[in-house]
Structures are given as structure tokens and as C-alpha cells.
Amino acid sequence: MKKYAIIVAGGSGRRMQPGMPKQFLILEGLPVLMHTMRVFYLTGTEEVRLILVLPHDHTGTWRDLCLQHSFAIDHLVVEGGETRFHSVKNGLEKTEGDSLVAVHDGVRPLVAPRVIENAFTIAGSRGTAIPAVPVNESVRMQDKNSSRSIDRKNVRIVQTPQVFRSSILKKAYEQEYRGEFTDDASVVEAAGFAIHLIEGNVENIKITRKIDLDIAASLMG
Amino acid sequence: MKKYAIIVAGGSGRRMQPGMPKQFLILEGLPVLMHTMRVFYLTGTEEVRLILVLPHDHTGTWRDLCLQHSFAIDHLVVEGGETRFHSVKNGLEKTEGDSLVAVHDGVRPLVAPRVIENAFTIAGSRGTAIPAVPVNESVRMQDKNSSRSIDRKNVRIVQTPQVFRSSILKKAYEQEYRGEFTDDASVVEAAGFAIHLIEGNVENIKITRKIDLDIAASLMG
Question: Which of A135, A154, B33, B210 is the most exposed place for a label (fewest CB within 10 A)?
Fold first, then answer.
């Protein structure tokens, strides 16, 4: 079965230095996004076709960075939409036939190859595969004036790549956009499919703050 | 009102190098635990009395480290119990009068001074103050064969120092130990008190794995 990875790099990075989206920041000599795409390129045996979803305003920067870093990994660039939901939908339109589709955050360069491989395998047999990690801290739900503990044994922090059989993902993305769609699993769940969790790798952090770049560098070290 | 901080350093560190408990590992030239105690020592204006709870087997190592690093911050050493619950209880017995008691993980050297100060202030007025941070990733609950999304807007990852009016904490620790007591807030909640969350600092990670030491070093940098 054909394999795709939709790499979502839609963030405008307003929380970090203005003007420079976080996926373009340099980590160990290379933009974060290139690290991310390399992991998919180098993973496993069968080719994963890369679809990179970028905001319109960033395509020029990306082209320049590719030249500057002699980045030669084959990929298709697709323009992002208004929200992450719309961006993924745009990427999904470029996939063909009955396939397995991974959706991955461009700012997660530290995903382990074994997690990618495992996610494709499990999604192939079960339809969905979502990497997640347990929390080693206590977890509470904030109520209006107080809070209550929830059993952390069953709590999982969700990561990407979230991998789906294409028929499932396409069906799910026919829904209207809703604010509570924080990731692809929530979209697919709302369409009535079971979400199967697999073991993620704890190093697979999302680079959203300046300090995450330093942490990522330590983790790569 | 008198202020105490019970620093819990009871972990045997079996997940890291055998024999060397993680609170004794060297971070930027100093054992993790000394960094942690220094933050409390240097915080705010009014003195915080430090009660360090250590497993019996580690008191000798601690004494040697204090000599070696000329560690001169005044503190009382108390022997730990079978679980964290029993260790905190042992520390609590050494507090006197109507006071404010912070319970803090020895392996959290990166707590911000402002969080400590705020926790004492809020606990003084409301009885409990628990630092917590939001999650910027999706969260799910693992069921037997599937999983379901939970609204991450209200999910909080709980940190320490957890600060309580001593009367509340002592009342709570009269309960029998239960397996679901993962932190002091859960003990106090089970005794019927409202748990008031305050804003923690995201850097305040728990050093439980080797890699956390590197991350902590980046965060201190």
C-alpha cells in the first residue's frame, strides 16, 4: 500500500521571534523542518511520499532555504489553509488511491524512526495508529473554582505522526470544521472511528517555544 | 505565619545509573538536590525552614556531598518512609504550630522563585495552592480497546511545591495510605478540601531520566 506523510508546517510562529516561523529555526545547523522531513525519508524500507503543507507566505522562504542547504529530498509543496484542519485537508487532496496517510507536525523533528514504522504497520491492520506517551506527573481538571484529580494511569499525551487508512481520513475530513478538532485523531473520532493508540517516544517534543530548540538540541546530542 | 518546605528526595533512582539516586546527580557542578534547596533558601523575604526527607541509606552520601560542596544552607534531615506518602508524613511531624507547609520534589530544581512566593501567598489566604501548567498537546484517555479525547483546555499537569495550611495538611495525612495518592493534592482532596490551582512555570521539570539532566542544563543555561 502506498504511504504518504503530510507534514504540516502552518504555524506563523508569532510566539517566537517575529517573522521567522519556528519550523525554519536552525537546529544543529539545519532548519527544524528539514530534520523532520529527513526522519521520514530515512525511515524503513518502503518509500514514504512527502507532502509539505506551508502557508502561502512561507513558500519563498522555504525555496531559499532548500537552495541554501542543498536540500534534495523529494517532496510536494501544498498551500496551507485557514487552520490546521484546512491545511491537512489540502494535503490530503494530493494523496492517491487506497493508501496509508501519516499526518505529522513539522515542528517535531525528534520522532523516532521506529514510531513511524510502527504507526504505518498498525494503521495498516487496524485503520488508525496514534502515538502517545504517559505522563509521569499528576493530572487535574480545572473546574470553575476548584479542580479535581483524574487518574493519570489512563491519561496519554498525544503526538504525531497520526497514521490512518486514507479511506478513513478522507471520510473524516468531509466533516465541517469544528473548534474542538485539535488533531487528526479528534477529527477521525468525531466521524465515528475507533482511535488506536500506540507507544510514542518521549523525546518527540513539539518545538513551540525558544527554549524547546535548546531542549531539542540536548535530545539530539 | 511560619513557613516550611518539606523537600522529598526519597527516590532510589533505579531507573538511572544503579546506586546513584537521581537527586544526587551533578547538574552544572552541583547535586540536583542542592540546586533545589537553594531556590527555597534564596526565595522571597521571609525564611523558609527546610526539612529534607531522605531514605535511610542515603543520609551518609548526603553528608559527604554537603562537605564536598561546602553546602551550608541550614536544614533538618528526616528519614523517609515506605512510600512518598509516608515520607511526607515523617517530614510533616517536624513542623510546629500553625504554619504554611510546602511539599516539593527534590528533583525539581527549576521551580521559579515567583511560583514559590505565589504558592505561599495563595495558600495563606485560600488554604491550598498547587502549581500546574496547561498542555499544548492533545490529550486522550486510554480505554480497554480504544481511546477517547478529553478537552485539553481544562487539563493541567501538576507540579510542586504544593503548599497548604498546616492544619489542612496534617488533617489530610491522618488518612490511611491509598495507592491513588500520587501527590499531596490528591491526599488533601480525598480529605474533602478544595484544591486551588495556581500558575506553575513550564521549566519546572522533574528529573527522572538521564536525558532530563541535559534538558535541565539547557533550561538553566
Answer: B210
DSSP A100: E
Instruction: Supply the ipTM of this predicted assembly.
Output: 0.90
Which among B145, B148, B186 is the nearest to A138, CB-wise?
Answer: B186
Domain ranges of chain A: 2-220
- Grid cell, residue B207, equals 528529573
The residue among A200, A196, A49 whose CA lies nearest residue A124 is A196
| B104 Cβ contact list (under 8 Å, min separation 6) | B5, B6, B7, B8, B36, B40, B111, B160, B161, B162
Give contacts of B139 with chain A, Cβ < 8 Å.
155-158
A138, A206, A215: residue with CB nearest B137: A206
Q: A2-220 maps to which CATH number?
A: 3.90.550.10
Judging contacts by C-beta atoms under 8 Å, the chain B residues touching residue A182 are 138, 149, 152
Whether the Cβ atoms of residue A119 and residue A163 lie closer than 8 Å to each other: yes
The pTM is what?
0.88
pLDDT averages per 10-residue partition of chain B, 221 residues: 94 54 92 97 85 94 96 96 94 97 97 97 97 93 88 94 98 95 96 97 91 89 77
Cβ contact (<8 Å) for A154 and B143?
A: yes
Distance from CA of B213 to the nearest CA of A (A): 10
B102 neighbors B120 (Cβ within 8 angstroms): yes
Residue type present at position B103? V
